[in-house]
TrEMBL record, chains A, B:
Belongs to the acyl-CoA oxidase family. The active site is at 489 (proton acceptor). Keywords: FAD, Fatty acid metabolism, Flavoprotein, Lipid metabolism, Oxidoreductase, Peroxisome. GO terms for molecular function: acyl-CoA oxidase activity; FAD binding; fatty acid binding. One of its GO terms (biological process) is fatty acid beta-oxidation using acyl-CoA oxidase. This is Acyl-coenzyme A oxidase. It is found in: Peroxisome. Residues 31-171 form the Acyl-coenzyme A oxidase N-terminal domain. It catalyses: a 2,3-saturated acyl-CoA + O2 = a (2E)-enoyl-CoA + H2O2. Its cofactor is FAD. InterPro entries: ACOX_C_alpha1, Acyl-CoA_ox_N, Acyl-CoA_Oxase/DH_mid-dom, Acyl-CoA_Oxase/DH_mid-dom_sf, Acyl-CoA_oxidase, Acyl-CoA_oxidase_C, AcylCo_DH-like_C, AcylCoA_DH/ox_N_sf.
């Protein structure tokens, strides 16, 4: 046995490998078409394949099962080794986009910032951004550690800096190429997280020296949770209160150097410590920072929207209020958008592992002498696993769509708000509206999906029984790494409330004033169209949720009706109680329903599009529609309380929906292996032996355990702390004897004399 | 700042300490009475206080924040150090129960097993069992590591061994005193978990030598997840197929020695390895075991119910079928019962931490210039935290009640099924029924509560924002340690299905045959009483869920009605489809509803009892009733889909229940600090600085972080892997130059010639 002996392939007991093969052989659906559908289009699909292939074969970047056995110091160091490697890919990726691999070095030209060369833009970073998103899937701590530098530090400068400041810090100094300087994002403090406007760190302007002095006035003002601060960052984007002539102008952003770039020694006035043990993502060097009279030049304030001007000693502060308020969105927005994509990728990983295990694993025979039943053949198991698979499918189109909207909206914003030259007020008004919609959409999708994926990981781990609790099968660490997504870059509850309040406001405008922006709102907020609202409220919209192709949009629309009814109920409650806080529970629900509606709509539109679905095979399309229906029905059943309470459905209809659910599950069960194969995740991306492609669950798992836990060198079975155990087991009969025998009757009698 | 500077106590920004003090000062409820209520009675309360006091002050047993920073080898060793200490407490505790501290050493007498001394029984172990349960709360891995030895190995022998075998292994050999031998419980295999009857390990009887040979026939038959196997166990209770004369008699239990008790070297034919990294409980040495022709004497088979008899070469197998089937219950039952108690204790810990944090933490001001609002004053926050607090309160009475039922039923079983002398068939029939009911009750309560506490930890972690993700605040490790409770000792879904099928059967008997056991079923299954069923089905039971004292039982009864309606629906579905597997989702729900009903009933009965509640203060009782109502209403709202679908309530009634929920929350919010103080958990038990008693959240948290992460010795801020970072940041402009310059135009032109 042990390593050399394998599971007998002819054993009558279990048949894992044959099961997976059999299911693959029996399938007729087109995995290639599905993968193109999931990856948005052929170009993105090819790029994704190419990058994944590089990652799992790169000796530095690949993750192996030893990932689950490392100490924190090891993780920290290995993560930097990986960043180092990623920095080289970064240069390579930019050159690939610009097709410049010869003669003058492109990166050098960009850093020298000669006029002959176009500055970097989002398109130049598109390959690397995809690479970063994919690497996050195999090693979330690596993704974050780079993401904080590029995404948070970088976007803070992009969102708040002047064009010159952006070019200087990100391009000339090399930050965007992960060289020269390394940034962190010093927003949150020990005492303030969600309430950014309440941050306490101060930046006081000194007119004499034309500088700011940065200070941490109180323990609670210590910058806290700052990723990259403990060990890597040379610079920080600091959120601090701008104080000029004793007047507090609120929280603005400043670039504050932390460390000597060559020795990494802390600069004067900077105190930094390690945050220490976290629930997950141990490879991120989160730290705290305290500033004591740290002086920076005035020019280090990011001044796109707010400037301190010193004209011969006459100091003034100039602000563009509208834009200043937008700037708050920008740094965190990218993270939220990316987390929706992460939801798809993380979900696909765990759905693949759990589905393959459920098909390969047998437990309990239906009758004596029969082979034991595959877990996936139990209806309860199908009910636990397959809706999660459907969820992953449903995230994908909305994640890609949100990402596209993000990039196009940001481009429009930069075009209309250049810091050089006049602001184009008309187009700025439009882009501001778009940005606000994007904020609502990303908040609702980020919060809802990061929650749903937490639940998915937890539920799917449980479907793998004890083997799901082994760290080598990815669920434990995956969960611990994942769940911080529900808290950071906007706490999910706060985001949900904010999104819901905007939706409620739009609802009110539509109902009371017939106000509805057909250009900007008809996509994400189609259910707020006045005529839709009135037909939903009057109950004239009927749903039979049939399988007729012409009625498939019903599965989306029914959520629009549910939303309208929920919004109307909440509106009534607020009018009655005059207290919006009291309906918070329902507000969170509005955001969830909105996200579900958006996901269904994006999926419906993509799959029914003659040009964008890339799915031509009929049987394949059929299965993809089944997933869509399953998702909609599963969540109707899950929220059947609200569907009944607000009279979208009555109890008989709910019972029919539950019936229908039970008929769809076996259809999807038949194709569940091809449907997870279609994610095209190589074993190196899964890093979980019970989920490997070949389905050889027992041999794969045993071998990974053995590889990471070789028999002890000093004699198998004898633990290093042997003496503690043998001393305990071998201790004498008499406790008293071990104390010297002073409790013996004879002694006690003498003692009592 | 750093360690020396403290949060300014006069700072206008935050007021954590004063808030907690103020809420305590304003409270009028009697914490002592509540604590007695929660701990069941004054005797148990005093014992609990005494033991907790010992644990948090014992230099070996106490847990500090360094608990969160240890490597796996450190955890393993420290855990054994703690077991060592617990073994001494064990002797002490038995002597305390028997009041024998002088003259002849009690433990020696018990081990010598002289006829003059009464053998050990459950009462002798009562103090130690409480100690073990409490220590599990501060260090779950320690609890488990001892629990496997005493609870699983010990109970397997107690449940399956003859009186002589029990006395020998547990008393003479010292296992019950944690000396002499150390046991593990080798049930699950790589290929079989829930399906115990399908285990593959074989024990073949050899008539020639009157021995068994134990073998692992296949990789999938490797014993897997065996706690204590990797490093500590000298003996194992092995589940293996009994094969006599070529006939397979199914899975029986055997004591198989694994290691030399003095050197801990593995014995011949035993191969053992470490299971390695787990999601949590790293201090447990879970291992795998493979047996290759391991020979044990026939007498090592545990033979209370099945015996192999060799009379002069004539070999036969004698089985007591009824009792043999019961024996399957016994080993895992204790664990399940204990997990309900764990649910109360774990829940109380996290409810305390999150409640204190929510009262101490302020975020967002309601108006400019106002102090920021305490988190707990937000209705959404109340909705997220307070029902979890109510849950913890509701677990307690049912946990104590289940524990009592367990001990009395087991005692009755031993009395009626002694292996010496004739079996008392009449009383055995009764105790068998009781045992089956206990199985249903413990399965439903174990599954439901371990799930609910998983959700509680997750939800409450999120209410603490980023600080909840810090390992030092207990949630992360707490969750990882906890969730295995949903899988082991009976997977929650399997347990729920089994419990529900029994309940459904009872329901069928009651409806169709009017069969209802007034003596045995009227407690846990009161809702199955025929007249209750018919009034529930006819809709004649009306609920106004008012605050009238005489109507408080309604909050329990409404769940009985919901259960009846759910059972009726499920019965109908099964009749229609002839397939019980298809209704599995509803079966799981039956088990959940049953558990909720049991918890409400136990709480109601205790609190309304003139003798057992120990709560005489009116205001105190009022608050305790509010928790009861909150629990019932919260879960009605949560399951409002089923309450409406099966017509327990209509949508207007659900809306009223939601209203009522919102009026109860602020009542409990007022007393939330005293209500968590009443758990009387010292800081050393919480091990989470944001939850410490004084409420000084920022200073406490900062100091723990600093203690565990002192500034690096070789220069603050300069990481050990400095060269990897500075090399990356300082790399030259030109990528090509780093490759030797071969891509320059001039070189390329030469190369193309």
């Amino acid at each position: 046995m042990t390593k050399t002996q394998e599971l007998n392939p002819n054993s009558p007991v279990f048949d894992p490998v044959k099961f997976l093969k059999r299911e693959r052989d029996a399938s007729t659906i087109k995995k290639d078409e599905i993968n193109t559908f999931l990856e948005s289009n052929p170009e993105k699909r090819d790029l994704t394949h190419l990058i994944i292939d590089q990652i799992v074969n790169d000796p530095v970047l690949k993750s192996d099962s030893d990932y689950y056995d490392r100490s924190r110091p090891e993780e920290r160091e290995i993560t930097v080794r990986k960043i180092n490697k990623m920095s080289l890919y970064m240069e390579h990726d930019i050159k690939t986009v610009r097709k410049q691999f010869r003669d003058k070095d492109l990166i050098q030209e960009l850093q020298e910032n000669s006029n002959s060369i176009r500055p970097l833009n989002n398109k130049d970073l598109s390959i690397f951004n995809t690479r970063l998103s994919l690497v996050h899937n195999i090693d979330p701590q690596l993704g974050t550690r780079i993401g904080v530098h590029l995404g948070l530090f970088g976007n803070c400068i992009k969102g708040n800096g002047t064009d010159e400041q952006i070019k200087y810090w990100l391009q000339e100094r090399g930050a965007l190429f992960i060289k020269g300087i390394y940034g962190c994002f010093a927003m949150t403090e020990l005492g303030h997280g969600s309430n950014v406007a309440g941050l306490q760190t101060t930046a006081v302007y000194n007119p004499d020296t034309d500088t700011f002095t940065i200070n941490t006035p109180d323990l609670a003002a210590s910058k806290w949770w700052i990723g990259g601060a403990a060990h890597s960052a040379t610079h920080s984007a600091v959120y601090a209160r701008l104080v000029v002539n004793g007047k507090d102008y609120g929280v603005k952003t400043f670039v504050v150097p932390l460390r000597d770039v060559s020795t990494l020694q802390l600069l004067p006035g900077i105190a930094i410590g390690d945050i220490g043990a976290k629930m997950g993502r141990h490879g991120i060097d989160n730290g705290w920072i305290q500033f004591r009279n740290v002086v920076i030049p005035r020019e280090f304030m990011l001044s796109r929207f707010t400037k301190v001007i010193n004209e011969n000693g006459k100091v003034s502060v100039k602000t563009e209020p509208l834009l200043d308020s937008i700037s708050g969105y920008s740094a965190l927005l990218s993270g939220r958008v990316n987390m929706v994509m992460d939801s798809y990728r993380f979900g696909s990983k765990f759905a693949t592992i759990a589905t393959r295990y459920a098909v390969a694993r047998q437990q309990f025979a239906s009758a004596p002498g029969q082979p034991e039943t595959q877990l996936m053949d139990y209806p309860l198991h199908q009910f636990r696993v397959l809706p999660q698979l459907a969820l992953v499918y449903l995230v994908s189109p909305s994640a890609h769509k949100l990402m596209n909207t993000y990039y196009t909206t940001l481009d429009e914003l930069y075009q209309s708000s250049s810091s050089n030259g006049p602001v184009d007020k008309a187009s700025l008004a439009i882009v501001t509206k778009k940005l606000k919609n994007l904020f609502v959409e990303s908040a609702s999708l980020k919060a809802t999906n990061t929650w749903l994926i937490s639940d998915l990981i937890d539920e799917l781990r449980q479907t793998c029984g004890g083997h799901g609790y082994s760290q080598y099968n990815a669920f434990g660490r995956g969960y611990d790494d994942w769940v911080v997504q529900c808290t950071w870059e906007g706490d999910n509850n706060i985001l949900s409330l904010t999104a819901a309040k905007s939706i409620l406001k739009k609802f009110g405008d539509s109902v009371s004033k017939g106000k509805f922006d057909k250009v900007l709102d008809s996509d994400a907020f189609s259910y707020l169209e006045p005529s839709f609202i009135s037909s939903a409220m009057s109950g004239s919209t009927k749903f039979d949720l049939s399988d007729e192709p012409s009625k498939l949009y019903q599965y989306t629309e029914v959520w629009g009706v549910a939303l309208v009814k929920l919004l109307a109920h909440v509106g009534k409650l607020i009018r009655q109680t005059k207290n919006i806080d009291n309906v918070s529970k329902f507000l969170v629900l509005i955001s969830k329903f909105h996200a579900i509606h958006s996901m269904l709509k994006a999926y419906y539109e993509k799959l029914s599009s003659p040009t964008d679905s890339y799915v031509s095979d009929k049987a394949t399309k059929e299965v993809l529609w089944s997933l869509y229906k399953l998702f909609s029905l599963y969540f109707i059943d899950k929220f059947s309380g609200e569907f009944q309470q607000f009279k979208t459905f009555n109890s008989d209809q709910i019972a029919k929906i539950q019936d229908k659910l039970l008929t769809i599950l076996p259809e999807i069960r038949k194709e569940c292996i091809p449907l997870t194969d279609s994610f095209e995740l190589p074993d190196g991306m899964l890093n979980a032996p019970i989920g490997y492609f070949d389905g050889d669950i027992y041999n794969n798992y045993f071998n990974e355990v053995l590889k990471n836990n070789p028999i002890e060198a000093d004699g198998p079975g004898k633990p290093p702390y042997h003496s503690l155990l043998s001393g305990m087991l071998g201790r004498g009969y008499e406790f008293d004897a071990r104390l010297g025998g002073a409790a013996k009757a004879e002694v006690l009698s003498r003692l009592s004399k």
